[in-house]
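hey all, quick one before standup. I had two proteins in the batch that finished overnight and I want to keep them in one place so we stop losing track of which output belongs to which input. First protein below, input sequence then structure tokens straight from the run.
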Amino acid sequence: MVFIYRIREMFEGWFTGLTIAGIMGFFALLAIALAVAVPLVIGIFVWRDAERRGLNRAWALAAALIPNFLGLIAYLLVASQHKPKIHCPGCNTAVESGVNNCPSCGHRFALANCPKCNRAVSPGWKVCPECGQQLSE
């Protein structure tokens, strides 16, 4: 019983330092940190994704500043309509993924077509992703 009383005495001084104002101050700082960190993370995500898709990166600012995630939702709806872009190794032009030739310089992205479904396949692929046909090397 004496042991419990001494433990209580030890922690009693610590608990008196925690006041309501101290606890509220902690939560206020936490709220401010989240109010800055969440839009910053959303803005960075949208900036990088818009760059990858070839979209205007002003979406990042809109997504970060419009409250209640409405900007992020609007961006995701618009971005879902655009395929990611790839850069042509011949002329470094941004081209939609899935095309066979670069429209600027004519560089051919795929070296062959699948013998079964005629889908463009890249070198080194063992199986056609469309029909599952084994590809010869």
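OK second protein, same deal, sequence then tokens:
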Amino acid sequence: MKILRGFVYTLVSIALLVALLLFGARFADGPIEIIAGGPFTSGEMVTGPEPDWSFVRDTQTVEFQLESPARSRTTWIIEHEGKIYIPCGYMTTTWGKIWKKWPIEAEKDGRAILRVDGKLYSRQLVRVKTGSALESVVRKLSRKYRIPATMEAVETDYLWVFEMAPRRQGV
């Protein structure tokens, strides 16, 4: 009986620690690896003309924050023909339906801030469902991250792809 009680105490302790970590992360300056974080409190906002995004071609992960709700995440990034895209997989899986809330939030209000190397960029997330650019982005995603990304995954809503478009002035 003592062993069972000790086991239950250990499980409860671990659950509490995980809950505290998840709660505390909401107040952090950005995400903690795969754990969503709070809004960005550091970084230099970049203004002016659209940057040459080729510098992210070899970047494995970036951080972005939705403005509503103001939470941040770590994600992959793809550059294609001067535009940048972020993917979100597992959307039709049970795990994805529990864990991946941000894509649905982004479809409602796509205002976002991208943080790369300490620099902040105002962006607008726009879901891309069709087009030749999308096919190229999916191929690049597959090559860059060595995953079996396909257009079929996009067509069946397993994989969502968002363009991180420039935000219109005043938005």
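Flagging for whoever picks this up: The chain has a mean pLDDT of 91. Helices lie at 2-25, 94-99, 102-108, 132-145, 151-155.
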